[in-house]
Amino acid sequence: MSDSRMGRRDWMKLGGLGGAAAMLASCSQQKKTPGAAGEVNGIIFMVADGMSHGVLTMAENFSKIVHQRETRWWQLIADSSAVRGLMETSSANSFVTDSAAASSAWGGGSKVNNRSINVRPDGTEAEPILRFLKQRGRRTGLVTTATITHATPAGFGAVSEKRDDEHLIAPQYAGVVDILLGGGRRFFDPGKRIDSRDARSVFIKNGYEYIEDRETLLKSKSRKVLGLFSDGHLPFEVDRLNDAALGQTTPSLSEMSEFALNDFLYGNEKFLLQIEGGRVDHGAHSNDAAGLLWDQLAFDDALAKVLEMIDGRDDILVVVTSDHGNANPGLNGTGKEYGNSNDAFKGITRMTSSYERMLGEWNQAKEVSPEFLTDLVQRKLAFKLKPEEAAALFASLTEKPFIEWSNQLHNAHGLLGQFAGNHTGIGWTGTSHTSDPTMISAIGPQAERFSGIVPNHEVHRHFVELLG
Ligand SMILES: [Zn+2]
User: Fold this and answer.
1) Would the keyword Phosphoprotein be found if you checked this record's keyword annotation (predicted)?
2) In the chain, N or C: fewer CB atoms in 10 Å?
3) Ligand 1 centre from 292 Cα, in Å?
């Protein structure tokens, strides 16, 4: 075990002050610079998509309430052997990036316009990092809770003028990415693709095992896998946790990450694995606190699993970050001397559905009314809408006019976020991405490359230098 891998558990293992004193003495002799130079055989690049700084803070408090423990990311920030930095996030055409431009900057090394995957503003193409690495015999992987063809994985493995052409992105991964786990069957299945072509067969011909359910994945020993567990994005974690059937059929982000790493960590080839908590971003767009925070905790579980699996290895670099902020939520002080804030925040634990799933029930209802809406919100989100709130929400969902105060929040999600915020204390600046830099934590050899302010397109150079 290198001293840079000495975690809390190792301290506990020593037992007693004598052991701790002996460890302290050995540390003082061997102490290295955090993330000192060393050979890198694998990089695990973890992205909590659309994670504003406030999400990290709220997830920390939420984890203490629901799991009675700190988040692993919080511990990593406090760990003196890890490096901290800020990711600069602008795209070629805006201070505010989307996920396509952000991931293209990381994966292709060029700033591109929003909505573009590795196509520069002048029309030339940037080579995605996983294509580059595959030509050099490296192992490559993409794991996400969004569709596997969504912008963040695509920026590492595909080129597309438009991010929404996911049916064109799908076949590009064949032979380029060894392990693909996430959602998005509708971009592979001939019965669901807009051109009726079978994109799965391209993979099967290339030696991939095609998997559609959790149980088969957990038993698989294949080294090339296309695992698609939903037609679209994987369900929000709050829905996976509150629906036994979904929990059975859909692997967690942690399980998918473990599957990929079980292969990569013990192989002889260098590797790059991207792991994305893709729905953190969707929870933020929807101003949905339960959707957002449970997905952030699922991402944190994946981080804990990754760090546990690389414990004792001094050749693996882990980088944890986000591509951009989104809606910048935060817990506001409420009540006398802010004495109501903790209880208000705990109200999120009583929410048993994402807005997405709840509004799915609304969409399927034969008859709807403000009263139906009030009952639905009470059952799923555990708070009572005021009559005027129910009326405004009803108008927004039935496309009738309602008073506009903020154009960012002038939609059903923005209204729900504000009404829920009257109970939870959580406020949101809008329903879209923000320009803020994002948090970076890095641990392992060469981690110091990710300290200070890192322009997003510089990440690509580090990948090339370390694994090329
Ligand atoms: Zn987004």
Assistant:
1) yes
2) N
3) 12
